[in-house]
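Risk mitigation, structural track. In case the binding assays with uracil fail to produce interpretable data, a predicted complex structure has been prepared as a fallback.
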Amino acid sequence: MNMYSLIEKKRDGEALTEEEIHFVVSGYTNGDIPDYQVSALLMAIYFQGMTEKELSNLTMAMVHSGDTIDLSKIEGIKVDKHSTGGVGDTTTLILAPLVASAGVPLAKMSGRGLGHTGGTIDKLESVPGFHVELSTEEFVELVNKNKVAVIGQSGNITPADKKLYSLRDVTATVNAIPLIASSIMSKKIAAGSDAIVLDVKTGAGAFMKELDDARALAKSMVKIGNQLNRNTKAVISDMSQPLGFAIGNALEVKEAIDTLKGAGPKDLTELCLVLGSQMLVAAKRTDTLDEARQILSDNLKNGKAISVFETFLKSQGGDSSVVHNSDLLPKAALQVDLPSKSSGYVSKITANELGTAAMMLGAGRQTKESEIDLAVGLVLNKKVGDFVEKGETLLTIHSNSEDLDAIKENIYQSIKVDENKVEPPKLIYELID
Ligand code: URA
Ligand code: CA
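Fallback model:
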């Protein structure tokens, strides 16, 4: 087998066999195949696409390039959730304890954030003492005991994906649906869960800005998962404006706590109920989405969900009294209200731009090495469709720096107020299974 003929084959629109895909992925991972040949193949895939068979073979070749997590010692059907990334997307913090409160085990491997989207681990680390450095044994033990635990990404999960992603990044081949779908699914499959619920975002703050692209990505990932015997479903949800009110690490933890007590923002709560219901059905905890939703919304009100969160934080070294007293979370020195310049209906809150503003405050990493400030961020006071009076607060900036002129200007640019009534955007576009 030689790389030249495989590039030729894909260039001419033919499908690669399982052996051929394995040859490319293992050869590239161990350094036998040079960047320039893999770059050419990636570009050929970009234009020619991949068949379903190729997609599942590529995904499995990447899974087998490194370690996989063995969750077989955890009782029950393990369900994982993945979001394609959004601004102020606090759902994992809420879903993990919420789904666990219904008895479904959640063994979550999570990462840190880069750019304008925050990582779940960064957020959780704003709880004093909390850590994710667990051995696999401790991780499994905690999930069996509490039904939920979060572990940091292991160093050697899907090394092929890491190497391919870096190459795609510099060869204009990131935005190819087969490559994105197999990249995401390889990590989910290596992480060991039996079922996967995907939250595919669409809108300004999302990877897939257009609904058609989000749908194509969702369908592709669902097919890969189901072909590989992981019960996989996807929800396409809005990311034109930020989710909930808070953007920023400690601020989102506070928002998660409020939501787990049944007092969270409407959109965030709704998305958690939709995704959580899918997870309960995928885990065969209930037969119908309606039954699942009832259990989950009861647990937000009866104290079960927040109590699981408290136990979860404590079990991983965290100060669980933050659940009762959010003043124990890191707090920014300054809280600056940003007033609306006119009266009217909020018509736009551009998610990626607010994400960037939060990153400039220090809530996100500009490069992998950046230190983040857990306390800072933004808290919206209005969402799209809300009426605002001139002078009324649009949002509050939580900052440790007084130098806010540029950020304020950016925020004003990303929020539009219109005289005419505006309907809030649709939150859930489609369910795909
Ligand atoms: N996220 C991933 O994990 N992989 C991609 O290719 C794109 C987004
Ligand atoms: Ca939020």
